[in-house]
Sequence to fold (173 residues):
Amino acid sequence: MPDGIVAEFASADALAAAFERMRAEGRQDLHAWSPYPVRELVRAMPRSRVPWIMLVAGALGGLLGYLVQWWTNAWRYPLDVGGRPLHSAPAFIPIAFESCILAASLAGFFGLLSACRLPRLHHPVFELDGFERVTVDRFWLWVHDDQRDGDGALAASLGRLGALRCTRVGWHP
Fold:
């Protein structure tokens, strides 16, 4: 997260109004923290790609599970037991289904960790005084400040939108 301004708000409505105003001004790199989901922010956030990753991984996992069974039972090591067919699709379905579920769940787990940039042991907002109240009753908005305005125009704009306080936060990994 590059340099930016973190603003604290007392209500979800003030946070949503500030978020929409910053979006209207053309700022795209915004992060919000709140003690509960704020409906206006959930609608404004970009959609996750994790469900699509899970769908593709599940389909590939199921296909791979089916192909492994086909290769071992019908192609590479065929055994004629009691006159049964070598390629019996109904017998292959349970393991293919379980392979699908396993691949999709692993892709979802690691995709979510990647999307959330976890595990993260340190974040600069953890050092802000009062940030621990984000789990109780406070709302925070981080706005990327690409101009690094020295006159504090961004902080003043957030103050007019109802911010209780604004703090500059810089993080250089």
